[in-house]
Amino acid sequence: MPVGIFRVCLVVITAIVNHPLLFPKENGTIPENAEEIIQKMKEREESLRLEQLRLEQEIADQEATQKALEKPAEVVQESKEEKVRWDMWTALSMVIFLLIELWRQDFQEGNWQDTGGEEDDMAVLGKVFKGVAFPDKAVLASFYEKRILGTTGDMARMREMVEGFADDLLEALRSVCNRDADMEVEDCMGVGSMYENWRVRKPFVCDLIVPFAPPEPYCFRTQTWCSGNSFPPDEQGYGTIKVCRADEDVTGCICDKTKLGEDMLCLLHSQANTTRPSSEMEDLLCFKNTQYLDADQVMKWFQIAVTKAWNRISHKYEFDLSFSLLDSPGALKIKFRSGKSIAFNLTPVVQYENSDVYFISHFPRRGLAADLPSSTHWFLTFTVYERRFIQLVSKTLPANACHVSCLQILSFLHGKQCSLTGPSGLTNYHLKTVMLHLLQARPSQDWAPENLEARLQDMLKFLEKCLHEKKLYHFFIGNGKVPAELGFPIIFQRAEPLNLFRPFVLRRDVYRKTVDTFHEMLRNMLALINEYTVHIPLAHTNGIRKESL
Fold first, then answer.
1. DSSP letters along 326-362, please?
2. What is the rounded distance in angstroms from the CA atom of residue 518 to the CA atom of residue 408?
3. CA distances (Å), 387 to each of 345, 356, 391, 393, 401, in order?
4. Quick one: signal sequence residues (predicted)?
């Protein structure tokens, strides 16, 4: 529209400028060709008039087109308004759906302890694995008798030998350490599968933990992720250890928690008390320029102390001692002159308050698990309470209960599969956690020896469900049903449940590898068991059937 008006104005201006009356007559003499000029001017005037009419017609056409477009624009505007209203309702519906989904997940987490006791839940699991060949009772019994039971005596002899040598080594370690400056080492304790009698795969490795404490007048102040302070999600299950003087009240003054200005001074603590030389804290195995115990410093100290202790007593033994892993503080290997060897782990730990929960610095066998957040973060181990819980529950189970047998068979199958296809994110600790959940969820009579087949299927179904949901909760943390007889710290019972499968959410490659390994183990289960099974009469071979796990 503005362009059309501009063009009309341009034509009018041109006509005025070119009109003959605009030019003044300089003389009254009419040229000889005046008539010819007048004729040309008339023709020019006529052409301009026609051009003006054409432009006016174009303007009229544009105005008609504009009016025609305004009506559809109103329709489009109305449709946009309707779309906006529709989008608003869609967004509101999505928000309501998300709130319902979050509530459902919170409700499931609040009732996570009841999952194993629901028969209906167990019945709908395992649909993905229909058609998997599952051995019957006779095949499992034969396999267990030949492959598992024969190792029990070997484990007992090995435990006795390793414990005796470890006690002698630690006694020598105390003698070479400076009692006034070095850490104080206590007696070792056996933990893990070797001491819970379910380890099946060779080589057998004894796991021993060694509590230690700082020299006087220092002490350890421990802090966990559930102690009230905020910890990032990747540090759940960890804690820190602060080295303080025994007479220092770290909770009574805020000067250690708040950054004071340069012109401010704490009236309770002098500068000499709050600041210690860096060399002194490093001698106490702290991280540089901090008061927090450094796991790497502890590892170096412990390896040097063990080496000195062995040099003192090596003349008493007819074998050699060496470190099998340099990135673990006490991964040791005894090598006899005959060529045989025995491996065991001697790991320094720090006791959490007055409980049997311990901060552990390193795990010799971590598979595809993530590393520690930092060297000042220590993982908490509940292995002492796990052993006590198994012993406590075993007293209520039928004679020769099958709970340990199920765990041993499952551990054997998974280990064999990993030796074929490589390591996965699934560990023996995960399998043990599955057993602990089912031990608490199922009645005692369900673990009778004749129910070995059914309980093994239950463990596989429960594990499948956890892998599908990427959720396997720590047995003790957040479990309000822990028996009071164990004396388990209440702070961990009241904590939020800790998902052991959280790394699968963050690392999809590890999750895919783990699921593929689990599926492959199910497909190869019958072949792996038959490989180690003695001959079974023909009457029992028909017992190998297709089961829906």
1. TTSTTEEEEEETTS-EEEEEEEEEEE-TTSS-EEE--
2. 16
3. 18, 11, 6, 10, 16
4. 1-15
- Residues 359-397: pLDDT tens digits? 998 865 544 455 666 889 999 999 999 999 999 999 999
Q: Which of 29-33, 40-44, 161-165 has the lowest mean pLDDT?
A: 29-33
Question: In the beta sheet, which residues pair with residue 242?
Answer: 221, 292
**Above 80 in pLDDT, residue 423?**
yes
Tokens of 95: 């928000």
The pLDDT tens digits for 270-312 are 444 444 445 556 667 898 888 999 999 999 999 999 999 999 9
Peptide bond into 217 cis (omega under 30): yes
pTM: 0.71
Q: Which amino acid is at 250?
A: V
Which pair of structure tokens corresponds to residue 448? 């009778």
**Domains of the chain with bracketed CATH:** 121-248+279-532 (3.30.460.90)
Closest to 208 in 3D by CA, of 104, 429, 360, 335: 360
Cis before 203 (ω within 30): yes
Q: Give the distance from CA 64 to its chain's centroid.
A: 68
Mean pLDDT of the chain: 78
Pairing assessment for the beta strands 205-213 and 341-351 based on DSSP bridges: parallel
The residue among 373, 343, 412 whose CA lies nearest residue 238 is 373
In the numeric block, the tokens 């928000």 are attached to: 95
DSSP sequence for 306-331: HHHHHHHHGGG-SEEEEES-TTSTTE
Beta bridge partners of 320: 335
